[in-house]
Design brief:
The chain has 230 residues and is of the alpha/beta class. The protein contains seven helices and ten strands. The chain binds adenosine-5'-diphosphate (2 copies). Keywords: ATP-binding, Nucleotide-binding, Transport.
């Protein structure tokens, strides 16, 4: 059974009397442990697809099954709970809370998992050490470089051991060397626990880190390539 099943997903936006077909009946299965890239130029439908996969929006037609749950049937509250339990996010702009330290940011997703404060902080500290920030637990985002902030973002994304991680242009603001470090880190974490990564990007260099590349043009998957693992 695939970790993510995308079945006939169509998304049509209506603006006044105009219709935009952002996704035109997409079908794809993404396996457990797969590092899958959704690749395409601006306007091809990548963000729309990610929004449907993360349950931020409902498709006009079709369904999405993650971990055997049809998420297109979940109402907002259930969807939020599902996200907290099963999904981690890595954002281009890091999305760290500015008034929280690296440790507090990383521990945040663990709030919803029923751990006590001591356990949350111990786990967060271990994760920050794994991303090389063991000396910066009490630093605020504004006191860290972009690459360091994104390493906090990675620690946070993996903290609750989600089955699936959605990464939207995770290194879009970082240089090539930092990008390589960040991506190696994400891949190593994901492979260790057989976690599934959906990586969204317009950058062919970034796409080359994936095991599989789904290319979108005008809301259609026009290519599905698998590579040997790096
Ligand atoms: P990408 O992420 O690949 O740049 P998007 O998914 O953002 O592409 O956009 C795909 C198409 O859907 C574009 O034509 C875009 O203008 C349109 N679109 C995306 N979101 C909306 C929205 N909320 N309302 C109307 N049109 C939208
Ligand atoms: P331990 O086995 O004592 O938990 P580890 O060094 O294996 O120590 O991990 C450190 C912390 O990072 C732990 O809280 C662990 O749960 C977490 N961790 C390790 N690998 C992953 C991963 N791939 N995804 C999520 N969390 C992870």
């Amino acid at each position: 059974e695939a970790m993510i099943k995308i079945c006939g997903v169509r998304k049509v936006y209506r603006i006044g009397t105009e219709k935009v077909i952002a996704l035109d009946r997409i079908d794809a299965d993404i396996q457990k442990g797969e590092i899958c890239c959704i690749f395409g130029t601006s306007g091809s439908g990548k963000s729309t697809l990610l929004n449907q996969l993360a349950g931020m929006e409902k498709p006009t037609e079709g369904k999405i099954v993650i971990d055997s749950v049809d998420i297109t049937k979940l109402r907002e509250e259930k969807m939020a709970a599902f996200r907290q339990k099963h999904i981690g996010f890595i954002f281009q702009s890091y999305n760290l809370l500015p008034y929280m330290t690296a440790l507090e940011n990383t521990a945040l997703p663990l709030m919803f998992q029923g751990y006590g404060k001591k356990e949350r902080e111990a786990r967060a500290a271990r994760l920050l050490k794994m991303v090389g920030l063991g000396e910066r637990l009490s630093h605020y985002p504004s006191q860290m470089s972009g690459g360091q902030q994104q390493r906090v973002g990675i620690a946070r994304a993996f903290a609750a051991k989600p089955d699936v991680i959605f990464a939207d242009e995770p290194t879009g603001n970082l240089d090539t060397k930092t990008t390589a470090q960040i991506m190696e880190m994400v891949l190593a974490f994901a492979r260790e626990n057989q976690q599934t990564i959906v990586l969204v990007t317009h950058d062919p260099e970034m796409a080359s880190y994936a095991d599989r590349i789904l290319t979108l043009i005008d809301g259609n998957i026009v290519k599905d390539e698998r590579k040997d693992k790096k």
